[in-house]
Amino acid sequence: MKILTRKTQGLSLLELLIALAIFSIFITPVLTGLYSSSVQSVLNSKDKTLASYIAQNHLAELQLEEQWPSTGTKQGELEFANQSWRWQQKVVDTTDENLRRVIVTIEYGKDGAFTMTGFVGKKESK
Question: Among residues 112, 59, 113, 49, which one has the least CA distance to residue 81?
Fold first, then answer.
């Protein structure tokens, strides 16, 4: 009959519990960081989507207005989805005299900004 030595028996239950405790202490900050970054990513994605809606709405309003937008820069604030948003509109001439380029920038959060470029055509006089 062969007698098993301690080295061939494997880990004891106490050694296994200590190893799991050490592993959990080191893995907890890693998992917390992954969770925080994924939550932040979802929130940034939501803000960017809402900013794109605001920019699209702003361009659509300019295209529907009777008066052609004048060149230059305008800015303002608006309330959308229970949040305050800052917008800036820059209108510049193009090589086509009946078309102007509009660059709309929507600022969100501390450092977030979404920019969209569109074009507004001159209305034909009736």
Answer: 49
